[in-house]
Amino acid sequence: MFVQLDAAIRQAAPELDTAIKYRLLSYTVDQDWRHRERPSCRVPPRACEWRGARGVLLPLGVLRPGTSTLMTWDMPRDGDVDTAAVASYARNALATRDHFLVNAGQISAAARARAHTR
């Protein structure tokens, strides 16, 4: 499943660089690891996770909240990867990257405020 998830991300966004960072398969643009893209992937005991560092900007749908801006998509190990959905989220993450980098402070503050009101 992890291999399927990685293949779906790489097919959707072949311009991404990949590396293992903090024991996660991570992706970025132009080797800029400080502003690495998630999706990053990890395999905890019961699922495969797709983690979006700027997930707060993505359509919620399947994502569960993590930190103020990090969102996680849990995929049960016994399931198949929805490659079309993964590709859509990967492309969306890239499309919102520059907007997030320019407005990170405001986006993070707004996300924290929303989290505190729940």
Report what the structure shows.
- The protein is an alpha+beta fold and 118 residues long.
- It has one domain: Aspartate Aminotransferase, domain 1 (Alpha-Beta Complex), CATH 3.90.1150.
- It has helices at residues 2-12, 83-117, and strands at 17-21, 24-28, 37-42, 47-52, 64-65, 71-76.
- Strands 1-2-3-4-6-5 form a six-stranded antiparallel beta sheet.
- Strand 2 (24-28) and strand 3 (37-42) form a beta hairpin.
- Helix 1 (2-12) crosses helix 2 (83-117).
- The N and C termini lie far apart (33 Å).
- The mean pLDDT is 79.
Q: Which segments are poorly predicted (pLDDT under 50) over 5 or more consecutive residues?
A: none
The gross shape turns out to be globular
Instruction: Please provide the count of β strands.
Output: 6
Average pLDDT across residues? 79
CATH class membership: Alpha Beta
Q: Indicate the radius of gyration in whole angstroms.
A: 14 Å
In percent, how much strand structure appears in the residues? 25-35%
**Element order: H for helix, E for strand:** HEEEEEEH
Q: Give the CATH topology.
A: Aspartate Aminotransferase, domain 1
Give the neighbour order of strands across the main sheet.
1-2-3-4-6-5
What is the CATH architecture annotation?
A: Alpha-Beta Complex
Biggest sheet details: 6 strands, antiparallel
Number of domains: 1
Which structural class fits the helix and strand makeup?
Answer: alpha+beta
By DSSP (H or I, 4+ residues per run), the number of helices equals 2
First CA to last CA: what distance? 33 Å
Helix content: 25-40%
